[in-house]
Design a protein that fits this description.
Neuraminidase; 2 domains; five-stranded mixed sheet; 455 residues; mainly beta; globular; Rossmann fold
Length: 455
């Protein structure tokens, strides 16, 4: 299937995928046998929610004037721990909500493994949150820490609380949390204009970064979380820019092209890879951000090549290519060397939008399956191996990994409501993040905890 030229195709929104995936058509999925999975794909049915420790968050304490604040912060932390999908959360019995005396035996009788307690005190114009994670089974404190909270009127107030929640996840599991993160995505409005928006990982604090009558595509977070790169179609041609989120300043990377798609940062933030329309097809290039120059071409296959994504160690890159005549996922060196196909061949098989997990060798993608588009994962270290299908209802596209390497944000319709969803690849839990039928190309930020109070 040949992509439409962007001059003709970019002016319309595709229901099955955004312009970055303009090759994919619902007709490709409809041609499949809708009773069978594609060759080389298996449906994930082995999710397990067993073995998650029971954790309780006792309402935090503080001066009487802070009663509303302590309840709000306690609720945010408890919700963050729930959304981490690493714990079972115990609704705290009323008899134990206001108890000031810590009795491990009482919590142990409820089968609680970990207990979180906290105290809020005023500090200058803001507050301090003193958190403690208790190991109930051993009857001792596991770890504690103090977190600065800005005033409740600050745009970063909730983000600071999320950072404290991530501290608890780290103390208890030894693994990073993703509460103090945001998701960037594009919305097409009814009047044809576009918005670039961000939302906290819990679905709160929806913000409009900027809007434009021109088309905006494929936002990508910088590794330090301070910038977002995106492609835009202007009246005088396409351009690729970086936007500083604190100042709003724009840095222009490319301009005047027929089409520019799917930017992706290297993990050290030194290079930016993207696809450019060149002489009848898309080819992947990268740009030296440190030198502000020196774009180089990485692919030259005779097909279309888009959606580059760097491996965690930074030596490889996955991408989508049509060089075989079908939509397949490839891997190559970050200098364009040694390209190899990863996805299996099969009649009617189509794959799109690969994104490398920030942890390990898994790649998230979406593909045609039984008449619909579904999220899938595969192992980059095992070319041609079994692909795991994560979703099965509705159409689900545009995957973006969280920094923990277990959660994925995507555009979906599987629950009967269009919007952005999050799925936990370990438990299979999924949740609606933002509702809306024209939300596309979501990208998940790194941890933003270090940026609290800097914006």
């Amino acid at each position: 299937m040949k992509t439409n030229h962007p001059a003709r195709a970019a002016s319309r929104w595709l229901g099955a995928a955004f312009l970055a995936l303009v090759w994919a058509s619902p007709l490709a999925a409809q041609r499949q046998d809708t009773t069978k999975l594609p060759p080389g794909v298996e449906l994930e049915t082995r999710y397990s929610k067993r073995g998650r420790p029971l954790i309780a968050v006792r309402r935090f304490t503080g001066p009487i004037p802070f009663a509303g604040l302590t309840e709000q912060v306690s609720g945010i932390v408890a919700n963050d721990l729930t959304l981490s999908d690493r714990f079972e959360i115990l609704p705290v019995p009323e008899s134990m909500v206001s108890s000031t005396e810590l009795q491990y035996d009482a919590w142990n009788s409820l089968n609680v493994i970990y207990l979180v307690t906290g105290e809020i005190v005023q500090s200058g114009e803001g507050f301090q949150l003193r958190l403690t994670a208790h190991d109930v089974v051993y009857g001792r404190e596991k770890q504690s820490g103090t977190f600065a909270l800005p005033p409740t009127s600050s745009n970063d107030f909730r983000l600071a609380v999320h950072a404290a929640s991530d501290g608890v996840v780290q103390w208890v599991t030894g693994q990073p949390g993703t509460a103090a993160t945001r998701i960037a995505f594009v919305r097409l409005n009814q009047n044809g204009s576009f918005d670039l928006l961000t939302v906290d990982s819990d679905g709160e604090n929806l913000r409009r970064v900027f809007g434009s009558p021109s088309q905006i595509y494929s936002p990508a977070w910088s590794p330090d979380g301070t910038r977002i790169a995106y492609a835009a179609r202007e009246p005088d041609g396409w351009r690729l820019v970086e936007r500083d989120l604190a100042t709003g300043r724009i840095r222009e990377i490319e301009k005047g092209r027929d089409a520019i798609l799917t930017p992706a940062y290297s993990n050290d933030g030194r290079r930016l890879a993207y696809a450019i329309w060149v002489a009848g097809g898309y080819e992947i290039h990268d740009y030296d951000l440190e030198k502000s120059c020196c774009a180089r071409r990485l692919t030259d296959s005779g097909g279309d090549n888009i959606s580059p994504s760097y491996s965690p160690e930074g030596s490889r890159m996955t991408f989508l290519s049509t060089r075989t005549g079908k939509h397949h996922i490839f891997v190559m060196g970050t200098d364009g060397s040694n390209p190899r196909i990863l996805t299996p061949f099969g009649e009617g098989v189509e794959f799109n939008a690969p994104e490398w997990s920030p942890v390990g060798s898994r790649i998230a993608l979406w593909g045609a399956s039984r008449g619909t588009f579904q999220l899938m994962t595969m192992d980059a270290d095992r070319p041609g191996s079994q692909i795991t299908q994560l979703t099965s209802a509705g159409d689900n596209e545009d995957p973006g990994w969280a920094a923990d390497g277990r959660h994925i944000v995507y555009s979906g319709s599987g629950a009967g409501r269009d919007g952005l969803y999050v799925i936990d690849t370990v438990t299979g839990n999924s949740r609606l993040l933002v509702q809306g039928g024209r939300l596309r190309t979501a990208d998940w930020s790194p941890s933003l905890a270090a940026l609290v109070g800097t914006n």
